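It would be a great kindness if you could assist me with a short task in structural biology. The matter concerns a single protein, recorded as an amino acid sequence and a row of backbone structure tokens. Could you please explain, in whatever detail you think fit, how the structure tokens follow from the sequence? Thank you for your consideration; the sequence and its tokens are set out here:
___
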Amino acid sequence: MDNEFIKRNEAGNNRSTIHVYFNEEMQVGISYGYSAYSLRLVIKSMNVDSVRGFSTALELPYVFVSENVLKYIIGIHAVEKSVNKEHYIVSVDLEFDINDYTRWVNKLKEELDATNGFDTQTHISYLVPKDKFIEDGMSVFARNTKRLFDMISSFIVMIIFSPIFLICAILVRKEDGGPALYKQERIGRFGRPFYIYKFRTMRLDAEAMGPQLSHGGGVNDPRLTKIGKILRAHHLDELPQLWNVFIGDMAFVGHRPERKFYIDQILEYDKRYEYLYQIRPGVTSYATFYNGYTDTMEKMLRRLEYDLYYLGHRSWIFDIKILLKTFFSIILGRKF
């Protein structure tokens, strides 16, 4: 939904209705402003979970609820209007003191200030504990079979895709005469450094001024070469990571490996990143579908929440779902 549209709705809200916007990608209902506070009161009466925070973009508080909770609320309250199942206006017989609302908003702002202005709440925040250690959700047997699967599968895929490897290498080298492969130190399992391999997509002087994140993410980065844009758009630059999977530096599914330069910055805000050292980083991840390219620290902290959720809930079934979603996203040309 457009931010200005949401602001207009809340500016005219007389506190007797709740505007709820359904986010199809995250499968959650979201309310802002007075609607958020009313939704919070409804949720409390139902004794179910929600996620709340303060949106720096809208300068309004917000509350997330799951799709099932949203359906339940719509089922028991009168819905005045529904537009393409994206915007619901729910009538509620509910009164609240404006001073209580103001105190709640100030509390959310204080929580936001504690994270240096980063709005890091996600729709799974309440499932990622901040006060206790998160251990690997996979059993020892599952971890061992996962490693065996990764090793055998990566070897087979490298053989099948060897012609594409050759074509990509020739095209990259032909464009500017530079090396076809690019390696960069990342931090892996147990906090140990390793070199990740990719087909080079950027100019040779891309990081002349030091480590940088992708500008705007994906193919919008001005440092990309012409062939690099094509490789990045179709994720072909990631193919050499099959070698990382084969030798055990990475897995097909995990969390995306990061550089120590950025990990040190993340740890200043959230020490839980170290929990990820229990597992191998992955070629693809659960966080990728919700966070995309991490071109800001705020996105890095949001990505961490998804990575920690994956850590505590990972299983063979979860991995298969992520792999299938990754495969179809690439085939259909979806950006992630």
In short: The first strand starts at residue 17 and ends at 23. The mean pLDDT is 85.
